[in-house]
Amino acid sequence: MIYISFRYYLFVAAMLILFYALPLKRRWCVLLAANVGFWLVFCRTGWQFLLGTIMVSYLAAVWIDISSGVKKKVLLAGAVILVIGIWLFLRNEGFMRQAIPGAESLRLLAPLGISFYTMQIIAYLTDVYRGDIAPQKNPAKYVLFITFFPQLLQGPIPRYRQLGEQLFCGHLFDERKFTRGFYLIIWGFFLKLVIADKASVVVDTVFDNYPAYSGGYLWFASILYSIQLYADFLACTTLAQGVSFLFGIELAGNFKRPYFAVSVKDFWQRWHISLSSWLRDYVYIPLGGNRKGKGRKYLNLAVTFLASGIWHGAGLTYLLWGGIHGCCQIMGECLDGPKEKIYARLNIRPDGKGKRIIKQTGTFLIVSLAWVIFRAGTPGTGISMIVHMVSDFNPWIFFNDRIFTIGLSWKEMLVLLFAVLLLFAVERKQEEGIRISECIGRQKLPVRWLICMAGICAVMIFGTYGYGFEAQDFIYGGF
Question: Could you tell me the pTM of the whole model?
Answer without folding.
Answer: 0.90
